[in-house]
Design a protein that fits this description.
Radius of gyration: 32 Å
Strand order of the largest sheet: 3-2-1-4-9-6-10
CATH class of the largest domain: Alpha Beta
Structural class: alpha/beta
Number of domains: 2
Strand content: 15-25%
CATH architecture of the largest domain: Alpha-Beta Complex
Distance between the termini: 91 Å
CATH topology of the largest domain: Spore Coat Polysaccharide Biosynthesis Protein SpsA, Chain A
Shape: elongated
Number of helices: 20
Length: 596
């Protein structure tokens, strides 16, 4: 005879939240409903199970997949210890969970931060995690406990160890408190659980105290105490971006904090990345090789309409709490919003975009060209760029200089919709020069001024595919990728290239030359275009340089890094020469980079 064995498999979860509450008193029932309408919704969206453990008396909340009415349990203050312990027992018997978080109904959880936090722990260990705690003396021994109001995390391993005693903790705990002359702790379910965890698991229990993310006060650092009223608690140390849980939350607090979280993508790096997987700079502009002035006026309006959206995004992902990040918010906003702050055309001022190809000297072999593009007609860069021509003539250069003032380079006819991507135009401009028949093309920033004849740089491009200054990782005085690039951007770029950006050689593009006849360089340009299409790789303090560096550090392009003396002499900033161009000239530099 065949015997069929029915195997019952428990429902499995990464995280289960054990909430002890009350539905028979309107004030506490409303807290449950408010959870459901705020962080509870977020939990459901993220696949987190919430279970409410309630007294025996039932209400109209009858969904038994989440509302668990406990037999022989009341709804007074003393019942919290039963709801906590019997709730944990219920979870152990009915679910498999790597982590369990216990809290009351006036606790608020940033689910995104909670999930990110537990990802850093080994659920196979006996971990007891929380904060805002203290010590109590029981049986002549001090015991640390996490604040139950802020909530605490147990691993499933911990729950396995204490499962057998959960039903008897209440009675035993009463006697322990009396023996220890601590009658005020009889209802302290957080102290009780900590006591049993430490005595049952012993030295294998890892107690992790986190004072920076678990708070027994509300999100403003204020405690609402029925007896003592309002008082300030952690208001000087709470950081909303990293907060995991907070307590003493009123219904209004729930709503206010939810709005803050929603406005800031729950302060979640992963959430921000998801929101900006579509190019955040992309504009609805038809592809064309040439745009009339009237069309540029309409494009200018679209750029200006995009400005607030882009700046808000930058502020959301700025690493406020990262002490290693070097650059202040206002400078990062300025750099990353260059695309939406540029002026392509200014009809009111009578300023229109121009493309001018200057023949310098006798033009040389007509294959060599310097290029520059100023995409803001109203600042000093346009004036400085026009002075490049004069400086090239002065040092005896023979070749060409191609200058864009205003407008935007569209060599392939599909670039204008990416006009708001910060500093993406350099490579586009090089392709514009290539379309005119030039083969060796060197970009120079608008602030550069020639002090020595740079023809030798084009000779190098006959032998090498590129010329630029490079800086090794962690070079003294040079910003690292960690302190100049958003973590989200680093993750994004690493996923695209398969590399490790933080250990990459840095490419400086102040003076940056390419041999456009090289197939490798054309392949690099295609990869660069793919980065532009994504937009997000340009979110850093050095937008285009980080992208170029990331691609050049791929194995197939690493041959481009070399230590020619000329690369070291491409340019020097005027501050290092005391604004004396003759000093730079005598030292052999090709260009002085001026402040603009």
């Amino acid at each position: 005879m065949e015997i069929k064995i029915k195997i019952s498999k428990k429902e499995s979860h990464k995280l289960i939240i054990c909430v002890f509450g009350c539905t028979t008193i309107p004030e506490y029932k409303n807290e449950i409903l408010k959870i459901e309408d705020t962080w509870g919704k977020r939990a459901v969206k993220k696949g987190v199970k919430i279970l409410y453990f309630l007294g025996e008396e039932k209400s109209d909340l009858l969904d038994d997949t989440k509302y668990i009415y406990l037999k022989n349990v009341g709804n007074d203050y003393q019942s919290a210890i039963d709801k906590q312990n019997l709730g944990l027992k219920y979870i152990h018997e009915n679910y498999e969970s790597e982590f369990i978080f216990c809290c009351g109904t006036d606790t608020y959880i940033n689910i995104d931060n909670m999930l990110s936090y537990i990802d850093g722990f080994d659920s196979n260990k006996s971990l007891f995690v929380g904060g805002h705690g203290d010590y109590r003396t029981l049986k002549n021994k001090q015991y640390y406990f996490h604040c139950g109001g802020a909530g605490f995390i147990l691993t499933g391993v911990c729950l396995h160890y204490i499962y057998s005693v959960l039903t008897r903790i209440k009675d035993e705990w009463h006697n322990i408190c009396i023996e220890s002359s601590c009658g005020d702790l009889i209802s302290a379910c957080d102290v009780a659980l900590s006591y049993y965890l430490q005595n049952i698991i012993g030295s294998d229990l890892q107690i992790i105290e986190n004072k920076q993310q678990f708070f027994g006060c509300n999100y403003k650092g204020i405690v609402h105490h029925k007896g003592a009223g309002l008082y300030m608690c952690c208001n000087n140390i709470i950081k909303l971006k990293t907060l995991i849980s907070c307590h003493c939350m009123t219904l209004l607090d729930f709503d206010e904090f939810t709005k803050i979280l929603e406005a800031n993508s729950y302060f979640s790096e992963n959430e921000v990345i998801k929101q900006i997987t579509i190019n955040p700079f992309l504009l609805d502009i038809p592809d064309k090789f040439h745009y009339t002035n009237n069309e540029l006026v309409e494009i200018q309006k679209k750029i200006e309409n995009k400005k607030d959206q882009v700046i808000d995004m930058i502020k959301r992902i700025y690493p406020y709490n990262d002490e290693n990040y070097k650059f202040p918010l206002e400078l990062v906003v300025d750099r990353c919003s260059k695309g939406v702050c540029q002026k392509l055309i200014d009809v009111d001022a009578g300023i229109y975009p121009s493309k001018i190809l200057y023949k310098i000297g006798d033009g040389g072999d007509k294959k060599n060209c310097f290029i520059c593009c100023t995409t803001n007609l109203t600042n000093d860069r346009a004036l400085r760029a026009s002075q490049i021509q004069q400086s090239l003539e002065k040092v005896g250069f023979n070749g060409y200089f191609y200058l864009f003032n205003g407008g935007f380079p569209t060599p392939r006819g599909n670039e204008m919709k990416y006009v708001a991507v910060p500093y993406c135009f350099k490579i586009f401009m090089m392709l514009e020069a290539e379309k005119l028949g030039f083969e060796k093309i060197i970009w120079i920033d608008a602030g550069c001024y020639a002090v020595n004849n740079p023809e030798r740089l084009f000779d190098i491009l006959n032998e090498d595919d590129a010329i630029f200054r490079q800086f090794w990782p962690y070079s003294p005085g040079i910003p690292t990728y960690e302190n100049s690039v958003f973590k989200e951007t680093i993750v994004n770029i690493n996923n695209i290239t398969g590399g490790n950006l933080v250990n990459s050689i840095n490419v400086c593009s102040v003076v940056f030359g390419l041999n456009m006849k090289s197939q490798k360089i054309q392949k690099f340009i295609d990869e660069y275009y793919e980065m532009v299409k994504l937009g997000t790789p340009f979110l850093s303090y050095f937008p285009e340089e980080v992208v170029i560096s990331a691609i050049f550090n791929k194995e197939e392009y690493k041959y481009l890094f070399y230590n020619r003396h000329e690369s070291l002499m491409l340019f020097i900033h005027e501050n290092y020469m005391c604004n004396n161009f003759d000093i730079a000239k005598n030292h052999g530099y090709y260009f002085v980079q001026r402040q603009y």
